[in-house]
Amino acid sequence: xxxxxxxxxxxxxxxxxxLNCMIPYFTNGFGxxxxxxxxxxxxxxxxxxxxxxxxxxxxxxxxxxxFTGSGSESDNLAIKGYALKNRAxxxxxxxxxxxxxxxxxxxxxxxxxxxxxxxLPVNELGLVRVEDFQSAIKxxxxxxxxxxANNEVxxxxxxxxxxxxxxxHGIAMHTDAVQSVGSLPVNVNELNVDMLSLSAHKFxxxxxxxxxxxxxxxxxxxxxxxxxxxRNRRAGTENVALCVGLAKALEFAEAEREQINPxxxxxxxxxIDGIMTIPHVRLNGCRExxxxxxxxxxxxxxxxxxxxxxxxxxxxxxxxxxxxxSGSLEPSHVLLAMGLSHxxxxxxxxxxxxxxxxxxxxxxxxxxxxxxVQRLREMSPLYNG
Amino acid sequence: xxxxxxxxxxxxPRNVGEIENADGVGEEGNARCGDIMKLWIKVENxxxxxxxxxxxxxxxxxATSSVLxxxxxxxxxxxxxxxxxxxxxxxxxxxxxxxxxxxxxxADALKKAIADYRAxxxxxx
Lengths: 385, 125
What we know:
Helix content of chain A is 40%, strand content 14%. By secondary structure, chain A is an alpha/beta fold. Chain A is globular and about 70 Å long.
C-alpha cells in the first residue's frame, strides 16, 4: 500500500466539500466582515452563519462562541484570560497531569505570574478521579481545566461530574475538547462546562482555526488586543473562509458521527486485538472510556521512533510518545503519569483511525507490524527472546 | 531530518548481533533515557577483526551503532581508541542537533569494550 494514514489525532485532511464552501471567501467574497458595504456585509453574514452553526451543535448561544487561530490559542485564552481577569477572586487553579501542552504550558506561565496550580494525578487507565478533584478544591480555587478526551491514549474523562462539582463551588470549568469534538457528542450544558476549546483540523476542517465556547457571564482578559473583533475578546480581522470551514466540517462530522463511529470502533477493536497477539505488548488507556478511533500500545524492548521510521518505510504514518519524537529527553508525560516506567513508555505507538480508514488498511498494518517489532527486538540488548 | 547515510544504516544496519567468545564487551546508555548500546569486539594480534552490536534506541542510535562497527573493524586497538563521537557523526554526514547528545553513544560503548578487552588481557598475563 502506498500510504496508510493512521495519525488522525495529529491532523486530518480537509474534506473536499468543506474546501468548496471555503473557497469563495478567499476570492470573490474576500470582504472584511467589519466593513459597511455589500462585500463586508456578505462576509459578516457568512461569519454569523458559521457562529450560529457551531453554537447550535454545542448547545450554546451565538454570543458564546469565539473564533480563534487554533485549539492551542483557545486553551491559552480560556486559562490565561480567565485567570488574569478573575485574579481578585482567588489564586488557585486545578488541572490534570495529562493535559495537552497548550494547557500545561499555560499553567506553568501562570505559576510564574504567582498563581498556584494543582496537577491532579490519573489512575493507571489515564482517568482523573473525581474524588481527587474534590479534595483539591480550596477556598481560593477559581478555575479547573480538565481535557474531555486525551490526545495520546484517548481516555474520556468524567467532565460532567467534575463540572457539576465545580459549579457547586463557584469554580469556572474549562475543558480542552480538541480531540473529542467531531468524534463524541459534545454539549456544553450536558458537560457542565463554562469554557470549551475545539480545533477544526481534527475533524476534517482547515488548520489555523479553532473556537472557544465561553458561557455568558464568564469574563476573560483578551490575549490579542486590537480592533474589537469577537466582542473584544480576540482582536484581528476575522478569517471568514476558515471560520466557514470550521463550521461546515463540524456540521458534516455531527451529521455523520453516528454512522461512522460504529464502523471505526469495530476496525479499531480489530486492530487492538490483532496487536495484542504480539508478545510483550500492553494496551494503554481504558478499553471502554476511549475515543472510538484511538489505539495506544507499548512494545517492550524497543523504542518508538525506530518503530515509526520502520512503519514509514512501509507507508504507514503513526506517532509515538517516545522521547525522541517529543523533542525532549523525556517520554510521554501522559504515559508516565499513568505509572508506566520510562523504559516501557519509550516503546509507545499511537494509531488513530479516520472516517475513511478501511479494513484492508488495518489488515495491512497487522501484517506489517509484527515482523518490524520482531526485527527491532532482535537488535535490542534488552530482549532475550 | 535524518541524512541519507543515517537512513541507510538504519534501514540496513551492519554487524547486528553478538559475538560468542568476544574479547571485549561494552555497554553505554540506559533504558530510562531510551538508548542503550551494547558492543562486542573480537581482537587478533592487537587488531579488531570483528565487531557487532545490539541497540535499543531511536533511528540515530541504531545508525551510529552500525556505522561505528564499520569504522572499527580492521583498526588496531590504539587506532580504535582514537574514534570519537564526532567521528561517528561525521561518518553519517551529521545528525539532527537533538540527537547529538543522547543518541550518540557508540564511541563511548567502544571505549568501554576496549577497557574490558584490556582488563581481560591483564588477567591472562
